[in-house]
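Postdoc handover notes: sequence design on the structure in folder B. Input tokens:
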């Protein structure tokens, strides 16, 4: 299938439970010579580029051989947690099976309760064997495979701890010293409670993906497909949206989902695009407007033609972009990854040292020393360090996507914490790019003046001309004998009487007036008839956004190719700190480099000429109605056709970083405190197994707080 050179492959891998799992797969793929490898254990997303020396089937077999499971749409697996031969689909199922045999042993452990039958070592052995088999089917297999690959995972610790307790007890039983060697309940409770902890961890990590899952659900809906019979009569068929192809005609009625990206051919409607923009206010759409698959048609009825399906739709691209961003590792995670890689051998060494020191330096005996060593193995948690960053990043990216902010990589999410200044382009960024007439002056009658201006500008595609056409539209227009657009000057026409008219820039009237401050000058036979002032409308949210940035101590800069007076006027209205006008794309690039040298700088732009500057900035931010080049270059895209979510993107970046820091602090503190406490005998292996599972749940809950935490 995908055995072509450098073809990108995306796989869904189940059974990864921690960073070490991800490192195992990462190491295997790189060893096979695959390029651009990205592995994310939350969500199980694995991507790489083929090198032509190995097929996708061989790669999938290799991953499955490591003890994980490559999931395909048709598999029908719900929850395949890696590599076990026994027919359990989840940690919860394993826990329920084990607790049946473990519960009697746990009752026996409660002080004051002595059931004579449960004191029998053979009964304890009989209860332990099923639990131990189920434990080794998962933890044992996973541990052996990870050791063979040279990256021991946390299951090595669980397998070692429970096997030590089971082996020691079995030896005591066979040697006839059962009363001194009886730790069967330790082996049972360790396995059972770790399964419970793993299930709790999986359930809480699942919640970190909630925002993305709600986006993905909207990808499959029913659609009304339009077809024509032999008599060319319209027929409507109900089909699944996944069955649609580009070019198909569809009917979308009030209250229905837009099944795929499409273009309106007939009708008008109000569309709720909250799925992509985070904005619940409906947007008016008419003929030739595009509809985003997954949005909801709130009122009206339209007929539309499908323009994109499957992986090419806006929503699919958003999901793909966010998933790719999740597999990116922000700088702060690299340290945790390095520690995770050496964590398991370090803990095994500490456990052996604990047993030796307790046995030789105290008089508690080998049995109690072994218990302390097992407690060290069971309570230590490499998962917590591996989970600290991905859990927070998953929630941060998910909340951002739900609110119409797309981060293309996790790095930009972290870098936002340092941003000290934001550079804005003017046209299309701080302004809407739509012009309106603000003032005009005429030496002739107002009606005639407007008629001449409209009749000339009607033939121009310039945005300024469009403002005049829109506001001064009339049916009584002048029929020209000849009309042309002169580059750098404006519109030039001759009427049937031979009179020459010009609607143009100051250049056209330079010999008639010294006032160069107006947008358009109207001339007849080289005489000035008047002038028109046109201004670009400032975005309604721009002033609030600039004020918010200032309150956070972030400097705002207007960097534009437009005239100085116009830029200063906009800056004055919005309260922008610094203005740099009349800049070429090359000069913009130099300016951004200079600003970066002073302090980390974000650039917000929308045009093709902004693309180099967006790439140069510490973080490039583009608007969704920006040019394709600008969107490709930027690391962050604001999807709601405006600046409204800029403070949210900055706030989420900062608070995601704070959450990661808090998570890592907890992960390190937990292990630094828990391991010595277990080594000194203050924690039993049973309690340690439960606490280990809960430590990850604490991290997941702290990360989930990002979903509703105030970040702006």
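Designed sequence:
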């Amino acid at each position: 299938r995908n055995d072509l050179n450098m073809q990108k492959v995306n796989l869904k891998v189940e059974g990864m439970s921690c960073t070490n799992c991800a490192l195992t797969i990462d190491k295997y793929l790189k060893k096979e010579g695959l390029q651009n490898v990205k592995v994310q254990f939350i969500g199980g997303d694995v991507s790489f580029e083929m090198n032509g020396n190995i097929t996708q089937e061989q790669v999938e077999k290799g991953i499955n051989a490591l003890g994980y499971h490559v999931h395909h749409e048709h598999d029908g697996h719900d929850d395949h947690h890696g590599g076990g031969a026994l027919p359990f689909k989840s940690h919860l199922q394993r826990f329920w099976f084990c607790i049946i045999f473990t519960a009697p042993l746990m009752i026996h452990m409660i002080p004051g309760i002595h059931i004579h039958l449960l004191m029998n070592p053979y009964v304890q052995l009989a209860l332990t064997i099923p639990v131990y088999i189920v434990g080794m089917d998962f933890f044992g297999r996973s541990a052996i495979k990870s050791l063979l690959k040279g990256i021991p995972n946390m299951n090595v610790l669980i397998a070692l701890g429970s096997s030590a307790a089971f082996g020691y007890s079995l030896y005591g039983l066979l040697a006839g010293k059962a009363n001194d060697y009886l730790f069967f309940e330790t082996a049972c409770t360790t396995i059972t409670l770790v399964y419970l902890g793993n299930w709790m961890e999986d359930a809480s990590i699942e919640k970190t993906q909630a925002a993305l899952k709600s986006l993905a659900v909207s990808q499959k809906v029913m659609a009304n497909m339009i077809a024509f019979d032999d008599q060319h009569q319209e027929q409507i068929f109900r089909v699944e949206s996944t069955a649609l192809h580009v070019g198909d005609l569809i009917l979308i009625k009030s209250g229905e989902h837009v099944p795929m990206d499409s273009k309106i051919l007939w009708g008008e409607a109000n569309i709720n695009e909250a799925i992509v923009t985070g904005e619940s206010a409906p947007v008016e759409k008419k003929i030739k407007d595009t509809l985003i698959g997954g949005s909801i048609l709130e009122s009206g009825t339209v007929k539309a033609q499908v323009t994109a399906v499957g992986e090419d739709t806006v929503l699919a691209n958003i999901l793909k972009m966010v998933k790719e961003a999740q597999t990116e590792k922000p700088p702060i995670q690299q340290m945790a990854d390095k520690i995770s890689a050496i964590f398991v051998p370090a803990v095994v060494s500490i456990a052996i040292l604990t047993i030796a020191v307790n046995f030789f330096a105290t008089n508690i005996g080998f049995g109690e020393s072994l218990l302390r060593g097992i407690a060290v193995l069971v309570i230590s948690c490499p998962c917590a360090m591996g989970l600290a960053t991905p859990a927070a990043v998953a929630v941060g990216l998910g909340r951002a996507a739900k609110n119409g902010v797309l981060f293309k990589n996790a790095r930009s999410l972290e870098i936002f914490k340092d941003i000290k200044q934001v550079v804005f382009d003017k046209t299309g960024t701080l302004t809407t790019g739509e012009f309106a007439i603000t003032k005009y002056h005429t030496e002739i009658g107002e009606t005639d003046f407007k008629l001449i201006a409209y009749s000339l500008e009607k033939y121009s595609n310039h945005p300024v001309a469009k403002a005049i056409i829109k506001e001064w539209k009339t049916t009584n227009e002048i029929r020209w004998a000849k009309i042309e657009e002169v580059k750098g000057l404006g519109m030039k026409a001759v009427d049937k009487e031979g009179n020459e008219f010009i609607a143009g820039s100051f250049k056209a009237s330079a010999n008639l007036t010294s006032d160069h401050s107006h947008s358009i000058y109207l001339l007849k036979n080289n005489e000035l008839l008047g002038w028109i002032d046109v201004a670009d409308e400032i975005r309604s949210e721009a002033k609030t956004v600039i004020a918010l940035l200032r309150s956070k101590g972030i400097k705002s800069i207007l960097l534009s190719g437009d005239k100085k007076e116009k830029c200063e006027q906009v800056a004055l209205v919005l309260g922008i700190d610094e203005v740099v006008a009349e800049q070429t794309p090359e000069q913009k690039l130099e300016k951004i480099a200079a600003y970066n040298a002073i302090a980390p700088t974000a650039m917000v732009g929308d045009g093709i000429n902004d693309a180099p500057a967006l790439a140069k900035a510490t973080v490039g931010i583009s608007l969704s109605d920006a040019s394709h080049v600008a969107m490709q270059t930027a690391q962050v895209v604001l999807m709601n056709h405006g600046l409204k979510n800029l403070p949210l993107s900055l706030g989420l970046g900062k608070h995601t970083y704070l959450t990661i820091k808090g998570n890592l602090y907890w992960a390190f503190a937990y292990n630094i405190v828990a391991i010595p406490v277990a080594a000194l005998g203050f924690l039993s292996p049973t309690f340690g197994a439960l606490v280990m599972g809960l430590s990850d749940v604490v991290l997941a809950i702290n990360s989930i707080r990002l979903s509703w935490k105030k970040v702006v």
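Context for whoever picks this up: Residues 389 and 660 are 5 Å apart (CA to CA). Don't rerun without checking with the PI first.
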